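Troubleshooting: if your tokenizer reports a length mismatch, compare against these two reference records.
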Amino acid sequence: MQRHRSGGHTAAVRFRTAGFAFLAVHLFLVAWITLRPLDVPWISAANLRPLAGIRADLALGWREGARRIGEGLVLLAPLGVLLPLAGGRLYVSVWGSLVRTVAAGALISLGIELLQTGVPGQVVDIDSVLLNTVGVAVAHLAVVPAARARIRHRSEGAPLLLEEPAQGRTPTITRVGIAP
């Protein structure tokens, strides 16, 4: 059986609490940016062809295209760090963590796009889902593995989990047979 050292357990709780708080604030800001009604004179049609919107953005010029693509990449990128932080695990597979985080980011982005169908002035764009998902993956790969390794390295001197000492042989009861 393993017991948590009180300092390590408290730190883990603080990291998770901070992760959930930052995650809630970020998702509130994303919802406010993407789901508020816009008063626009005209609305373009929904883009359901992958990469068509990115090509159209690049056709506007490299500066405007880079700005629009960058906005799509950056919108949900903090989720790549905040979702693992809210999970609070240090010893997990890099690829497993990446897959879980990217899948969650893609589902959140898809949910936002589906909610935009009922918001005046907002248009569904499949390229937003692609860019948001790539942004989550890039942020996760850039920050999370190195941060976990650093935290694990710092905690090696003071392990978070302590093994209980062995208490001797397991007692046996005589004259008790094994069931058939």
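Reference record two:
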Amino acid sequence: MSSRPLFLYALCGSQRQASASRRLLEALRLACPEGITIEICDLIAGLPIFNPDDEGERTPPVVAKFAGKIGEADGLIVSCPEYAHGIPGGFKNALDWLVSRDEVPFKPMMFAHASHRGDLVLEQLADVLQTMSLRIVSDAFLRLPTAGKGDEAQAAILSQARESGLLQASLSRFAEAICTEA
């Protein structure tokens, strides 16, 4: 790895602060192996509804900041629940803002999924993200079924995953894929 830490930007499809997806991202952030840093995006809920008329010179500042963080990142981590058999509206809106921008193409991305189900959203996201030319690193896929469990059960599962090295292993595989392609 380079002397500079890899910067991973984590996008959460749920805007609920205590969501299973957000907690999984927090656990990954705390489990970072040396040489990797993770920042969890807190901008998605504040993005205006996508309107192509507001691109270019009219890009809202929060969208420019969001896209800038994407551009700075060496890779993205996406953790997204399934809402009514699909991508949550706010998260899809965030992706729509990125479609015609230069920050996204060929950016490495890994999924961190907090449910034992939700394969429809994973398929839909993979389709959308591949259409946007993101490079999904399937070897780094992490599924840790915490959704639907109480706070204590979620905390125990996440703690065990950190102690067992599961979280670090997934991040290490992702980092290796990023460095191999660089």
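Descriptive notes for reference record two:
- The longest helix spans residues 166-181.
- The chain has six helices and six strands.
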